[in-house]
Structure formats: structure tokens, C-alpha cells
Design goal:
The chain is an alpha/beta fold and 415 residues long. 43% of the residues lie in helices and 14% in strands. The chain contains 16 helices and 13 strands. The strands form two sheets. A seven-stranded parallel sheet has the order 3-2-1-4-5-6-7, sandwiched between helices. A six-stranded parallel sheet has the order 10-9-8-11-12-13, sandwiched between helices. The longest helix is centred in the C-terminal third of the chain and has 19 residues. 47% of the residues are buried.
């Protein structure tokens, strides 16, 4: 087999607890024989790490998060850029972008790209960005400056909060792009004439890490006050996750129904959600766990009776693609209730392997929750079917194979 290209993978931040799907992919590419160096635009803020982060061998290089914090690196990058053959092309592109996005961030991406181009760690032969918004801006600018080709993995927020003009420009520049939901894939294909350069690649799940759970669920139906049904949700407390809708739905459940709810995740809106829970008189039934490591999350999947995530489209257009937590929960035979947003219906089919309602509808969500809480037999049937769906269609090895082939085809073209 010919030697693998050295890949420089540009990330917004690394490591991040909320982006296990990226870490899983990086580890998969390493196991497939690729030599990676990770280029992070931000330093980590999470206090914990998942086990998968410790398995990844790639070196991590941190760019200046804010240009004024490392002025010497930035100035060296700027002066080195003057001598590079792609400097003129970069400036032409930058001054085309700037009138459409007059912001500090635009200058920050330029400065980070210049630093990357000057330092160029580990003899990188290829650039790959995770997320088509700001990481792809740094990656594309560095590609223009150095002449090294680039590719991109697009996900959810980055697609739906980026202006169409920017996506079109990037899709015309990148050799190819992959995305993880059919919804995002179809949208991106409408923005480029190079439709064959856009690929659908589900993240999938490392099924060895999320092995079959043979244990029994509680079988409770909400009738016993001493044995409440255990409801679980995992996700950041941000608008697109719809936790305010979920809390309002819980408040609508009949008073004779016995349940408890645990939330795992950080997020800017936690304080607001806790206040809402108090206002709705739900606080005694809710435990807020904060961010947890992956092994602790897995333990909760296996102890819970029902998983709920009320995804929605946020006011700024942000939305989930296919939330990885739904795939993880489903792999553990944990029945899921969610909404018909973005890629969720690509995993869950209402009444077959989960329950789906329209977003922002507390009454419909409450009805689905009550139905599932009162019927442990339904929960078991949905959970069993969900696991079968994950294990037959969402094995992450298929995604790694697809990415490996795409990179290998580029290597062959270059040869």
C-alpha cells in the first residue's frame, strides 16, 4: 500500500466533550493508517476528557485564539506570507469576503491562517477542516497561501448558520466535502455546480465502545410513587436542544404519573432552565448532572427507562444534524422520544423504533412521554428496534472506510 498523506486537521477547539463524533473519526482515521496533526483554533475549556481523546496519538497545535494574545507569532506569520506565491490569491479572496462579513472574526481567521502557513507543522501534505464555517475559513485561506489542497467535513450549525454565498465559495474551492445528514447534504448540493464533490457520510458509532446491553430495564409504568420511571436527556443547554419545551411538556404530565428526570450536559442556558424548572414546580423531580465523561454517560443510558430530546430550529437558523446522543442511546436499547427536525427522522421512525413529534409543541411531547411512561412493553419494543437500526446502519467503520477512500483517491490523482 502506498504511504498515506500527512493530514493537518483544523478544528475549532480540541478536545471537546460535546464533539465525541469528531474524536471517534480522528481515532478511526489513525487506525486506518493516516498520519494526523490536529490544528486547534481554540484551547480546551472542558475540565474532563473522554477515553477516546487519550487513545488519539496525533499531536495538537494551538493557533493564537485571539491575535493580540500572541502578537509575535502573528507578525511572523504576516511577514512570511508576503514571500509565499499564494499571497496575492489570498488577498484577493480576503477582500472579496470582507465586505460581506466586516468583522473581527474575519481578520482573526486571516491571521490564524498566516500563522498556520508559516509554522506548517509536521510537513503536512493535505488540509482537512471539521466544520464548514470558521475552521473552513482558516483552512481555505491557508490552502490559498500554500497551494496545499483542502477538504471539509460539514455538520449542522456550521451549514445552517453560514450565509449561502460563503458555502458556495467554499464548495467551489474545496476538493470535496462530506456531511452527516441527508438534509444537510441536499442543501449543500443546491449551492454548488460541483454536486459530485458533496458526499453523505453518517458519523455512525463505534459499536465496540457502545456494546450490546443485555440487561433489563425497570419495567415501571409510573404508577408506583416509590419507583418512578427514569427519564434521561444528554445535550448542551442551548436553544436548539429545546429543553424549555421539554420542561413545559414534563409540567403537563398527569399528577398521578411518577417519574424523575436527569439532564447531562453543560451550556449557557443551564441557569435559565433551572429557573424555569423551579417556576414550573419541577425542581424536586429533576437532577442536573452537568458534563460527564463518556463512560458515565453510557452508564446512565443503561440505567434509564426513556430518553428525550426536543430538538428545534433556533432563531438564528442553528439546528442539530443527527444528534449523536440519539444514536448512542438507541445502541443501548434505550427508547427515544424526539422531534422531526433535520436528520432525526433518518434514525428514528415514529412508532417503529422511537416516538417523534413536531418541534416546539409541549402538548404533543407530553402526550408521547405519557404514552411511553405508562407502557413498558412499548418502550421495550421501540428500544429493541432502535438498537437493530443502529447496528445495521450506523457503524462508524463505514464512514471511516468512505473517508479513507476519498483521501486515497486524492493521493492517487496526485501520483
Amino acid at each position: 500500500m502506498p504511504p498515506r498523506r500527512k493530514l493537518l486537521v483544523v478544528l475549532k477547539g480540541y478536545p471537546r466533550l460535546s464533539e465525541t463524533f469528531i474524536a471517534q473519526e480522528l481515532l478511526g482515521l489513525e487506525k486506518a493508517g493516516f498520519d494526523l496533526t490536529l490544528i486547534s483554533m481554540r484551547r480546551p475549556t472542558d475540565k474532563k476528557r473522554h477515553p477516546v481523546h487519550d487513545e488519539i496519538k496525533a499531536r495538537v497545535v494551538y493557533l493564537p485564539e485571539y491575535l493580540h494574545e500572541e502578537p509575535l507569532r502573528v507578525l511572523k506569520g504576516l511577514f512570511a506570507s508576503f514571500r509565499k506565491p499564494g499571497f496575492g490569491a489570498l488577498m484577493k479572496r480576503f477582500f472579496k469576503d470582507l465586505p460581506r462579513d466586516i468583522s473581527r472574526n474575519r481578520f482573526r481567521r486571516l491571521g490564524q491562517a498566516m500563522v498556520l502557513a508559516r509554522e506548517w507543522p509536521d510537513g503536512g501534505e493535505w488540509l482537512h477542516a471539521h466544520f464548514i464555517h470558521t475552521p473552513a475559513s482558516v483552512t481555505e485561506y491557508a490552502s490559498l497561501l500554500t497551494g496545499v489542497p483542502w477538504t471539509c467535513s460539514a455538520h449542522a450549525k456550521d451549514i445552517w448558520t453560514s450565509p449561502d454565498w460563503e458555502l458556495t465559495e467554499k464548495l467551489s474551492s474545496a476538493r470535496w466535502a462530506v456531511t452527516c445528514t441527508r438534509n444537510g447534504y441536499q442543501h449543500m448540493r443546491t449551492l454548488t455546480s460541483r454536486k459530485d464533490a458533496v458526499h453523505l457520510s453518517y458519523h455512525g458509532l463505534d459499536l465496540a465502545r457502545f456494546g450490546h446491553f443485555p440487561g433489563e430495564r425497570s419495567g415501571q409504568d409510573g404508577s408506583d410513587p416509590t419507583k418512578p420511571v427514569f427519564l434521561l436527556s444528554v445535550g448542551r443547554a442551548v436553544e436548539k436542544k429545546g429543553y424549555d419545551t421539554l420542561l413545559r411538556a414534563l409540567a403537563l404530565l398527569p399528577s398521578d404519573l411518577n417519574w424523575r428526570f436527569e439532564h447531562i450536559g453543560g451550556g449557557d442556558e443551564l441557569a435559565k432552565l433551572k429557573a424555569l424548572a423551579s417556576e414550573l414546580k419541577l425542581s424536586e423531580r429533576i437532577t442536573w448532572k452537568g458534563a460527564l465523561a463518556q463512560e458515565d454517560v453510557l452508564d446512565h443510558y443503561r440505567r434509564a427507562d426513556l430518553f428525550a430530546l426536543a430538538c428545534r430550529i433556533a432563531a438564528n437558523g442553528d439546528r442539530d444534524g443527527l444528534p449523536n446522543v440519539l444514536v448512542e442511546a438507541s445502541s443501548q436499547r434505550l427508547p427515544c422520544i424526539s422531534t422531526s427536525v433535520s436528520g432525526v427522522p433518518e434514525l428514528l421512525v415514529d412508532g417503529e423504533n422511537g416516538l417523534l413529534v413536531e418541534p416546539d409543541d409541549p402538548k404533543a411531547l407530553a402526550k408521547a412521554l405519557e404514552t411511553a411512561i405508562r407502557d413498558p412493553g412499548l418502550r421495550q419494543r421501540l428500544g429493541d428496534a432502535a438498537e437493530m437500526r443502529v447496528r445495521s446502519h450506523f457503524d462508524y467503520n463505514a464512514s471511516i472506510d468512505q473517508l479513507s477512500q476519498l483521501f486515497q483517491q486524492e493521493w492517487q490523482k496526485a501520483s
